[in-house]
Amino acid sequence: MEKIVLALVCSFGVVVLLGPLAIPLLRRLKFGQVVREDGPAAHKAKTGTPTMGGLMMLAGIAVAGAIAYYDSAPVWLLLFVTLACGGLGFLDDYIKVVLKRNLGLKAKQKLLGQIVIALLFSWLVTQTMGRGTQLWIPGLDQTWDAGFLFHVLVFFIIVGTTNAVNLTDGLDGLAAGTSVAAAAVYAGIAFFLGQPAVAGFFAAVVGACLGFLVYNRHPARIFMGDTGSLALGGALAAGAVLTRTELVLPLVGAIFVAEALSVIIQVISFKSTGRRVFRMSPLHHHFELGGWSETKVVGVFWLFGLICGLLGLSVVLSSTVGGLR
Asked: What is the rounded average pLDDT for all residues in the chain?
């Protein structure tokens, strides 16, 4: 337990200490946020706010993991996925912000990067960590050996989760706050399942997000960018695989699922019927355009994320007879 607390405090401290250094530096380098033209009018004021703040979070998580769990293979594997996804996000941010190419990495380039990360992680987790290819089925409390399909599932989990968290990152404190709830739940799941090092890693993620919220809460002084959102998504995806709770992840991260589904539904509806289901997607913009203040949207989404996270935790706590641990 001491290491878990150490990881949280260390990560939080690193991010908080980096803030006064990183924010002015990013501003001087003109690494400012580019706001979408069709977004809510109130967001125009955010143009130029320093982005790529996810680098601060990556530093906090990495330092905490290296100090508290330098001898833990699962933590190093989680750090690999987190840093790799964060690195992919950094490339995307760099191309958009520094090279002034609005679309960032091409879809094929980003997908290729995610395929490489997923394949490496899937191979490492099954061949070196003894994870196997079994899937735990909540409710039935049984396991099913997915065989080769397990590797396909890992790919979709990493791609889906990273992009879902990325879509959630659209309001001050939204992605960081909802990630606090999801990561805290996974810390609890890992601890309950007898994986204290994995719990400590997620404590570090919680600490990094809380530290980032010091500067990212409304009105935000810095944004995490794809560097942070893809890293957080990768961490959650990898943690779900290591704890064998892949099928619980959609419930723990229900707010991310809702954001991603809103975009999918909006695109399908508009292309097939010419009509929009939502005022704007992702979902948080729908409520903004409906008259909710930014802080109200964020607060409600935080609460919803916490409730769903606790529901996911209760599923694991009450259904471990079938070999989950």
From this structure: 91
pLDDT in tens, 202-240: 999 999 999 999 999 999 999 999 999 999 999 999 999
Of residues 26 and 30, more confidence is placed in: 26
Strand 142-145, strand 134-137: pairing: antiparallel
Q: Which distant-in-sequence residues (6+ apart) come within 8 Å of 318 by Cβ?
A: none
Of the candidates 218, 213, 230, the one whose C-alpha atom is nearest the C-alpha of residue 176 is 213
Torsion of CA 149, 152, 153, 156, to 10 degrees: -160
Token pair for 234: 């990768």
Full DSSP string of 147-199: TTHHHHHHHHHHHHHHHHHHHHTTSTTHHHHHHHHHHHHHHHHHHHTT-HHHH
For 22-87, the DSSP string reads HHHHHHHTT-BPPPPTTS-GGGGGGTT-B--THHHHHHHHHHHHHHH-TT-HHHHHHHHHHHHHHH
- Cα–Cα distances (Å) from 283 to 161, 262, 264, 275, 292, in that order, read 16, 6, 11, 16, 12
DSSP 308: H
260 contact partners, CB below 8 Å, separation of at least 6:
160, 163, 164, 167, 282
For residue 85, give the amino acid letter. Answer: C
CB contact at 8 A, 42 and 108: no
Is residue 46 predicted with pLDDT exceeding 90?
A: no
For the stretch 88-125, pLDDT in tens is 999 999 998 877 776 778 888 988 999 999 999 999 99
Q: Kindly tell me if the per-residue pLDDT of 33 is higher than 80.
A: no
Tell me the β-bridge partners of 143. 136
- 182: phi > 0 → left, psi -120 to 50 → alpha, else beta; which? alpha
